[in-house]
Specification:
Helix content: 25-40%
CATH architecture: Alpha-Beta Barrel
Strand content: 15-25%
Radius of gyration: 19 Å
Distance between the termini: 57 Å
Strand order of the largest sheet: 1-2-3-4-5-8-9-12
Number of helices: 10
Length: about 350
């Protein structure tokens, strides 16, 4: 294996010991997972709403966002189950910054030991506020220390066809959203759901194990190269595939970002609110849409839009809640949208 050693990593147990989770917060994660599962199965009529930065950096601004979101979550809890995106890994089509778990300071060399501690501490602080959190399963071999903190997990559009990610979802303790492929293929994602809902044999920590299967693996529609896919036609297509393959707890989350919010091929952060509102209108007019669509995901931070790492320096980069990856809705627009969704769903 061609490589060079950079540094010795601390053990996962050492990282966990330095950034422990309280007993109360651990119990809350169990409860949050149950509530999300109840929404996906239809036992809870609230909508699931996953909101937060495209990438969770810097921690100080992420935690300011968390404080605001927690306050709003408490206010809207009768209509919405709000989960915060604390995405510490950034998938790339070719190359680029891979997120704070790999490089906690994007202007310094990658330092995974420091990044793991940085991200674990940030996640624990958000959970201790009382917020359920979400992340994308990108580097499955580094999951311990993070996966047990999650109340919801995504398998991304580039990973959904990968057998390792499907088996990982099958073993996950929280509900897992399988995104449609970047091509827009819903069939690939449904195949991933079927695989994740069934048990598999694999190796883990020196043992052959059998995963339990995840009954709350579900679909996330995020659009594709051919355009958006949150409309009733695509939702009904997904529903037919669920029925054909006897998918347990058939459910869809509409990802209002990514290819669903592009205008002339360019992501427009403000378009996310329009996608959510259009989807709510579909819910009101189409019983099948309402039966299958259980919630939404948006990319949202303190400030509207985004900035480019390459165009800034350590001195000029905005660390006050402006995304350094994909454009996000600002806090004011996020708060307005969440209130509108809650009022519409009463």
């Amino acid at each position: 294996m061609s490589h060079k050693i950079i540094q010795k990593m601390p053990t996962v147990d050492e990282i966990i010991a330095r950034h422990p989770l309280s007993v109360k917060a651990s119990a809350q994660i169990v409860q949050d997972r149950k509530e999300i599962g109840d929404i996906l199965s239809g036992r809870d009529s609230r909508l699931l709403f996953i909101a937060g930065p495209c990438s969770a950096w810097p921690a100080e601004s992420v935690l300011v966002f968390a404080e605001r979101l927690k306050k709003l979550s408490d206010e809207l809890k009768d209509s919405l189950k709000i989960v915060m995106r604390v995405y510490i890994q950034k998938p790339r089509t070719i190359r680029g910054w891979l997120g704070p778990v790999n490089q906690p300071d994007p202007y310094e060399p990658p330092d995974i030991a420091k990044g793991a501690a940085y991200c674990r501490d940030m996640m624990v602080q958000a959970i201790e506020m009382g917020l359920p959190i979400a992340d994308e399963a990108l580097f499955t071999h580094n999951a311990r220390g993070f996966a047990e903190l999650l109340s919801w997990m995504a398998i991304g559009a580039r990973s959904v066809e990968d057998q390792e990610h499907r088996i990982f979802a099958s073993a996950a303790d929280c509900p897992v959203g399988m995104k449609n492929a970047t091509s827009g293929s819903i069939e690939i994602a449904v195949n991933g759901i079927i695989a994740a809902q069934h048990p598999h044999h694999t190796t883990f920590e020196g043992h052959q194990i059998q995963t339990d299967g995840n009954p709350f693996a579900h679909l996330v529609l995020r659009g594709g190269f051919r355009g958006s896919n949150y409309d009733p036609t695509h939702v009904r297509k997904a529903g037919a595939l669920f029925e054909k393959h006897k998918v347990k707890n058939p459910a869809i989350i509409i990802d209002a970002s990514h290819d669903n919010c592009k205008v002339d091929g360019v992501k427009v952060s403000s378009r996310q609110a329009e996608v959510v509102k259009e989807s709510l209108a579909f819910m009101r007019s189409d019983p099948e849409y309402r039966r299958l669509v259980k919630g939404f995901m948006i990319e949202s931070f303190l400030k509207e839009g985004s900035q480019k790492l390459e165009s800034a320096t350590p001195e000029t980069i905005d660390r006050g809640g402006l995304s350094i990856t994909d454009p996000c809705l600002g806090w004011e627009a996020t708060e307005t949208l969440l209130r509108e969704v809650a009022n519409a769903h009463v």
